[in-house]
């Protein structure tokens, strides 16, 4: 493989200029840049896959790949907006751009082409599921040593780096809170099991029951899709087994708010007849009626941390020092309980 | 100036291939692409400034330039998240990427370099103010015939195209609603006058007063910064003139929610003692306590419309047909009143 010096000689420039072009730092005449790139190309000069992308011109963009769901205003959900705010903060500090791209949920997605065509320097994947097509597409990035992080979703493949929140703990705390208040029969309104974070929530809920030797009852499980509407619709199923329920834990605040609305319309007061706890500690949680007990999740911090790590891995020092040691990391941020009124029975609230 | 045929001849490809490369449509072998670009470059083939950017490789990205305000989670505000959702929907449909970039509020910003360096094909400006540095920077895009739209902010310069909401009408409707209910002395909590949309809201408020021959009283004007915290803090100033106030109109829901919280803490019930109306019809408005009367603003539609128009202007047909006829357009979308409980006195609600 050619050396930097050979590239410099062929292009008729200094080695420093070769570095400046390949790392895309500082102002460089377009002609000089072209000469260096051509020389590097002719000599097959490649540091590694990332350097090759740099050689074509670093984009200065961090890609954020989001699922596209028709009619869902993704940015208007607390979950995505907070993660994006955190990413945006880190990206802004680094003077980079944040390139939002959509993928079809559950389908294959060609992440590698985003690197190959220099649209992005690094990638963050949001709202990913465990569906095989998605895992396969993401694994391809790991196999090619591309710089990326998945946020709030984990995979069996240990090569896939993730920043997560501890949803086992969060959901455990929510269920335990209801059990601590003397309730025994706790309904659980969860999101799709395609998300590892939903499965983690279920695990936390089950752990809390196990601790009290309360048998797990599948008939007390309900499924929504994390939208308020799905929470509202779940009210119907929950009302059918109301006699058997002491309280309900929901896997996010939006579903809890929808559920409470549905229960209200059916004349079932919350928390009076049925205490409810949410999850996320979203913007609205403190202001809805009744104020929502919930679990705080550091979404903003997750986004910021993942983006900061990515950009650290992009730095020349990290690449020289072997970013592979950094890869494969799973970072789990803690969650915590926030008690307001929706989970307390009327008398106590 | 060279013709497309000359470029095709020099590159040894068909004219159709030249078009496909320069418009970046369909799959093209990298070698073919390079040959065409080199030939076009050598012959100085340029359709216009935009085509020149295409010749360097169309980015496939719509740029969205946002103000960076430390500690403000922009995406978590209803205003930005809804506009971005609308933009995202249009951009997704067109198969393009959405490149978010931050600018310093009140400072000059070099939009043109984003086009020159092919980072973006077209630009949307969000959260812009009337400060001279910002207007100057945006005017530079108009002077260079770059494809762009400003959202929810208007300028004196008729060359700057904008998609707006009719905030004069919206604010007029809010004030008129309070006047219709028999209130006369209406406080007005507005945002910064640096935004044309704040000035429009003030105009609407004044118009409603004028219609009833109620003199405008500057002492009933309060200023926040559209954050909930600023609404909470405004409660103090509003409490000082409480004796003189029948009701308060706020320029967004967040300030209204903060104000209501501040009033509650001071023992002043809303709407019982002081009816309050918000503005935006945000996600939370229906669920807060009391449910917020407000003004619906089609933010999502504004973002979608602006992005769709931009992308239409980018299409080859529009460019051939003279996109300049399209430029300079101001599109104003209507707003409407939404009555819930916060503006109704307790007895009536």
Order of helices and strands of chain A: HHHHEHEHEHEEHEHEHEHEEHHEE
Backbone structural class of chain A: alpha/beta
Sheet of most strands of chain A: 6 strands, parallel
Per CATH, the superfamily of the largest domain in chain A is: Response regulator
SS strand fraction of chain A: 5-15%
Whole-angstrom Rg of chain A: 24 Å
List keywords for this structure.
homodimer; 349 residues; alpha/beta; 434 Repressor (Amino-terminal Domain); Rossmann fold; 3 domains; 13 helices; 42% helix; elongated
In short:
By secondary structure, chain A is an alpha/beta fold. Chain A has helices at 4-11, 15-23, 30-42, 49-55, 78-93, 111-116, 132-143, 167-180, 196-211, 228-240, 253-265, 299-314, 316-320; strands spanning 61-67, 97-103, 122-125, 148-151, 162-165, 186-190, 221-223, 247-250, 276-277, 294-296, 330-333, 336-338.
Note down, in words, how this protein is organized:
Two copies of one chain form a homodimer. Helix content of chain A is 42%, strand content 14%. With 349 residues, the first copy, chain A, is α/β, with parallel strands linked by helices. Chain A has three domains: 4-45, lambda repressor-like DNA-binding domains (434 Repressor (Amino-terminal Domain), Orthogonal Bundle), CATH 1.10.260; 61-160 and 300-333, Response regulator (Rossmann fold), CATH 3.40.50; 167-297, Response regulator (Rossmann fold), CATH 3.40.50.2300. In chain A, strands 2-1-3-4-5-11 form a six-stranded parallel sheet, with helices on both faces. In chain A, strands 7-6-8-9 form a four-stranded parallel sheet, with helices on both faces. A two-stranded antiparallel ribbon of chain A has the order 10-12. Chain A binds chain B through residues 59-61, 68, 73-76, 78, 80-82, 84-85, 88, 91-92, 97-102, 119, 257, 261, 283-284, 287-289, 300, and chain B through 59-61, 68, 73-76, 78, 80-82, 84-85, 88, 91-92, 97-102, 119, 257, 261, 283-284, 287-289, 300.
